[in-house]
From TrEMBL:
Residues 47-74 form a coiled coil. Residues 22-78 form the BZIP domain. SMART domains: BRLZ. It is found in: Nucleus. It comes from Kalanchoe fedtschenkoi. GO terms for biological process: positive regulation of DNA-templated transcription. One of its GO terms (cellular component) is nucleus. Residues 1-42 are annotated as: Disordered. Keywords: Coiled coil, DNA-binding, Nucleus, Transcription, Transcription regulation. This is BZIP domain-containing protein. One of its GO terms (molecular function) is DNA-binding transcription factor activity. PANTHER family: BZIP TRANSCRIPTION FACTOR 44, BZIP TRANSCRIPTION FACTOR 53. It comes from the Eukaryota. InterPro entries: bZIP (IPR004827), bZIP_plant_GBF1 (IPR045314), bZIP_sf (IPR046347).
Length: 142
């Protein structure tokens, strides 16, 4: 009698009841394998997307660096031009002052009065408003 009760209760001896748990285990293993495969594919796709994004960002960074370099060169050029114009303005101011001194001495020596408008004698004191420059967002676009 002991052998008969073992055959009924045991599921691993090849009886009809033992096929159901093995089938479930096999299906679960297949499902897990498929899930792991999908997970690996998803990670590969994410990695490819990130590599593409890195490439795009590097390209954008390079373009921005080129724009910055171009802007810096433009700034250096404008600063040099400003320095040149400032030096020229100082030279012309000194020359004008010398000419005004010469006219004053000529008036004193010869006794002649020259009627020169004040605006020509001291043009640096003319009411002059410097042009206003405003930066806009499209200055940095090439």
């Amino acid at each position: 009698m002991g052998t008969r009760s073992q055959a009924v209760s045991s599921g691993s001896d090849g009886s009809p009841q033992s096929g159901v748990p093995d089938e479930r285990k096999r299906k679960r293993m297949l499902s897990n394998r498929e899930s792991a495969r999908r997970s690996r594919l998803k990670k590969l796709k994410q990695m490819d997307d990130l590599i593409g994004q890195v490439s795009q960002l590097k390209s954008e960074n390079e373009q921005m660096m080129q724009r910055i370099a171009t802007t810096e060169r433009s700034y250096d050029y404008v600063a040099a031009e400003k320095d040149i114009l400032r030096a020229e303005a100082m030279a012309l101011t000194n020359r004008l002052r010398s000419l005004n001194d010469f006219i004053y001495m000529a008036e004193q020596v010869n006794g002649l009065a020259m009627d020169i408008p004040e605006s020509l004698v001291e043009p640096w004191q003319l009411p002059y408003q410097a042009p206003q420059f405003t930066a806009s967002a499209n200055v940095f676009q090439c």
